[in-house]
From TrEMBL:
Protein name: AI-2E family transporter
Membrane topology: Multi-pass membrane protein
Residue ranges of the TM segments: 65-85, 140-162, 197-222, 229-253, 265-284, 291-307, 313-335
The keyword Glycoprotein belongs to this UniProt entry's keyword annotation: no
UniProt superkingdom: Bacteria
Lineage: Bacteria, Bacillati, Bacillota, Bacilli, Lactobacillales
Keyword Nucleotide-binding: no
GO BP terms, alphabetized: transmembrane transport
Pfam families: AI-2E_transport (PF01594)
Family membership: Belongs to the autoinducer-2 exporter (AI-2E) (TC 2.A.86) family.
UniProtKB keywords: Membrane, Transmembrane, Transmembrane helix
Natural source organism: Companilactobacillus crustorum
GO cellular component: membrane
Coiled coil region boundaries: none
Length: 350
């Protein structure tokens, strides 16, 4: 038996080598990471929607299901961009001004507790940092063309894939019968685990973010907070970060609340965050992440810190799903959509 045949027969070794090659390829094309991830997210959600509709109406082709949905999404985006983006910009400017007014107010300096915070902010030169942050925001806005291009291309690719999902699957199965079928068989193995971990966790976190944002927005409206639209967008983006997102959102919300209603409003915000965190922990996670092992808080924060360093902002969103994916590959934790409880292989994890 030749060395090549021995390598092919050794399934564990060849899968390990193939995984390293895939990781190396993603590293080489890391500049296109946003395009890859956005395409996967859009495609995963659209295919899930098509499958859900086809369970009730199996004779409907995917293109007739997905085309109206994408047209509605495009119409809504045009409506939001033309009507609400100017409001979002205006409210964001007002929020920055209210924070600056609160920071420079005499009430802050006269309060012995807040005076400690004020002196610390003076030491770190907050004014220049705020100006630097605004400059950074302007730079992000100036690069919106590249971001918009990635979103548009990902949106189109997901539409083409979903509208011909059966043909794509049929075409992909041909590779499993090719002369190098073992390569595509192993890629299919990793792809299936990737969808069963990354996709499920990301979909669940998206649903949690929507619910968290809705609850927070309703509370902010009752409190008559300024710039609710800007705050709602901020809360939604932060809610995509598992565990830490809710805690991080407490800081800017507390500053805005104090500038509006003083300590009483800050207490209201803290109570709101605690209640939402309890709802997320004891209701949303069991409902939306029933097929996922809840990682210890220590591991969650370590993964977020490391993934943010390696992948930037994307790391805060996809770090946990990728970590769970590797746990699945190692056999420590196996995740499968629809499971009521996570399956833990204790023998392999010890």
């Amino acid at each position: 038996m030749s060395l090549y045949d021995k390598f092919v027969e050794n399934k564990r070794l060849r899968r390990f080598i193939l995984l390293l090659i895939v990781i190396a390829l993603f590293y080489l094309f890391r500049s296109m990471m946003s395009l890859f991830l956005l395409t996967f997210i859009f495609t995963f959600l659209s295919v899930q929607f098509v499958r859900a509709v086809q369970k009730k109406f199996p004779k409907i082709k995917p293109i007739w299901i997905i085309t109206p949905i994408y047209l509605i999404i495009i119409a809504l985006l045009i409506f939001v961009i033309t009507n609400y983006v100017p409001q979002l910009i205006t409210q964001t400017v007002k929020m920055f001004k209210s924070l600056q007014k609160f920071y420079e107010s005499k009430e802050v300096r006269s309060n012995p507790y807040l005076n400690v915070v004020y002196n610390y902010l003076q030491q770190i030169n907050l004014d220049n940092q705020i100006k630097g942050a605004i400059t950074q925001v302007v730079n992000y806005i100036s690069s919106v063309g590249a971001i918009g291009f990635n979103i548009v291309i990902s949106f189109l690719l997901s539409f083409f894939y979903t509208s011909q999902v059966e043909q794509m699957n049929s075409f992909g199965r041909q590779f499993l019968k090719s002369n190098y079928s073992w390569i595509f068989s192993d890629l299919f193995y990793y792809g299936k685990k990737f969808v069963n971990t990354f996709g499920v966790v990301l979909e669940a976190q998206l649903m949690i973010a929507v619910v968290n944002t809705a609850l927070t927005t309703i509370t902010l409206l009752f409190m008559k907070m300024p710039g609710v639209l800007a705050l709602a967008v901020m809360v939604f983006l932060l809610s995509l970060i598992p565990v830490a997102g809710v805690i991080i959102s407490l800081i800017p919300l507390s500053f805005v609340a104090y500038s509006v209603g003083g300590i009483r409003y800050v207490i209201y915000i803290v109570i709101m965050i605690v209640v939402i965190h309890l709802i997320e922990t004891y209701f949303l996670n069991p409902q939306f992440m029933s097929s996922m092992t809840h990682l210890p808080i220590f591991f969650t924060f370590v993964v977020l810190i490391v993934s943010e360093e390696l992948l930037g902002t994307w790391g805060l969103i996809i770090g946990i799903p990728i970590f769970v994916f590797f746990l699945d590959i190692l056999g420590v934790h196996s995740i499968k959509k629809g499971d009521k409880k996570p399956r833990i292989n204790l023998k392999k994890s010890l």
